[in-house]
Amino acid sequence: MPEERLTEDLLARLRAAASPQEYLDDDVTMERSLQSYLGELLAEKD
Fold this sequence. Notes:
The chain is built from three helices and no strands. By secondary structure, the chain is an all-alpha fold. The longest helix has 12 residues, at 34-45. The radius of gyration is 13 Å and the shape is elongated. The two termini are 13 Å apart. 0% of the residues are buried.
C-alpha cells in the first residue's frame, strides 16, 4: 500500500491552500476507490 500522509499534515496543507481546489490540484491526495483501499487492507492482513 502506498505511504499515506498523516491527517495533521493534510490538514495543515489544506489550511495553507488558497482554496480547496488548489489543495486538490497539488496531488497531495490519493485517487483510489473504497473497494481498492479495502482490498489493499485485506491483502496486508493475509
